[in-house]
Write a structure and sequence with these properties.
Blueprint (H helix, E strand, L loop, with lengths): L1 H56 L6 E8 L2 H30 L11 H8 L6 E8 L2 E9 H23 L10 H21 L7 H12 L3 E8 L6 H12 L4 E2 L6 E8 L2 E9 L5 E12 L6 H18 L1
Parallel strand pairs: 4-5, 4-6
Antiparallel strand pairs: 1-3, 2-3, 6-7, 7-8
Helix pairs in contact: 2-3, 4-5, 5-6, 7-8
């Protein structure tokens, strides 16, 4: 019995000794390596940041403009990179513009191009390159670049293409067809954005300036039309309908009896009132026809409330056409 007790005592004594040794080893390891533990965590935590900074530190060539972006996807990172490039281009343009102003004895002003215009102006250019991209833990980094000389050349190509389109719309009567006025205005805005960039990059602030003023004057003016109005049926209230109709048309065109362009209008009163607008150019060639179903019954058409509705219907249909 004493022998068994002694064996049991020695077993637990041995077990305690082994546990003490393990604990001592762990304690020794912690005391030796604990300072390095935080260093490892710090290094891992900074690794992504260091990698991101590598794109910033990569060598750059002076003939290029660069942009860097980060995002959860490649497309998002690319978008931010283009935005960054447009910001850098904005800074470059402002710097060059101030230099040009100084050379011209303060007779010129900076272009004041909005960053969003720059971004839209460069995002689809062939000269734009994805120079470098990285991915780390589902985070993307992208660096884009554009060669300054290529940017200037491709912007010029786009200016010339838009200029040809604008000229073709003015070719017949020196004003766009009525249904092309909205297109003319949009193309002109794109043209002006590109022109402002090109003028400053090329340091030629007068390039196409006179022509641009001509385009802008046309864009700011309503097209002139001589109106020929015909009612299918005579009615004393036709004069009220005419006033309402001319009031709405005046928001889109200038009514001028001496105009070389003509707008022929037929108001047809059957069961439902229909309106036909036929636009003719200065050579009497048909440009466009707008057919308007008013859905207004003829038997109530001349009521004051219906005439007001008629005006709103005409405006909505012309606005959609133009």
């Amino acid at each position: 019995m004493n022998y068994l007790c002694d064996c049991k005592y020695r077993f637990f004594q041995y077990k305690d000794l082994q546990e003490n040794k393990i604990y001592s080893i762990i304690k020794l390891c912690v005391s030796l390596y604990f300072p390095y533990f935080f260093f490892i965590l710090f290094f891992v935590g900074c690794a992504d940041n260091i990698k991101s900074q590598n794109l910033q530190k990569d060598s750059k060539q002076k003939e290029y403009l660069y942009g860097i972006g980060y995002g959860a996807s490649f497309q998002e990172a690319k978008q931010y990179a283009i935005k960054d490039l447009s910001t850098n281009l904005q800074v470059s343009i402002k710097f060059v513009a101030k230099d040009v102003v100084r050379q011209k004895d303060n007779s010129l002003q900076t272009s004041g191009i909005a960053e969003v215009s720059l971004e839209s102006a460069i995002k689809d250019l062939p000269a734009l390159e994805i120079e470098k991209q990285t991915k780390k833990d589902n985070k993307f980094s992208v660096r884009v670049r554009v060669e300054k000389s290529l940017l200037q050349s491709q912007i010029l190509n786009r200016i010339q293409a838009n200029q040809q389109t604008l000229d073709s719309l003015l070719e017949t009567c020196n004003t766009p067809p009525f249904h092309k006025y909205k297109d003319f205005k949009q193309i002109l805005e794109d043209y002006k954005n590109d022109l402002a960039i090109y003028q400053i990059l090329s340091k030629n602030m007068s390039y196409n300036s006179a022509l641009t003023i001509h385009y802008q004057d046309i864009s700011n003016s309503l097209p002139n039309y001589n109106i020929k109005l015909e009612f299918q049926h005579d009615n004393p209230n036709n004069i009220k309908v005419q006033r309402t109709l001319y009031s709405e048309l005046g928001k889109f065109i200038k009514i001028d009896s001496s105009a070389t362009k003509t707008l022929e209008i037929l108001i047809e009163n059957a069961d439902i009132t229909m309106v036909y607008l036929s636009f003719y150019d200065c050579n009497k060639k048909l440009e466009n026809v707008v057919k308007i179903n008013t859905y207004l019954p003829y038997n109530t058409f001349y009521q004051a409330q219906q005439i007001t509705r008629f005006g709103a219907i005409v405006y909505k249909n012309i606005e959609a056409t133009n």
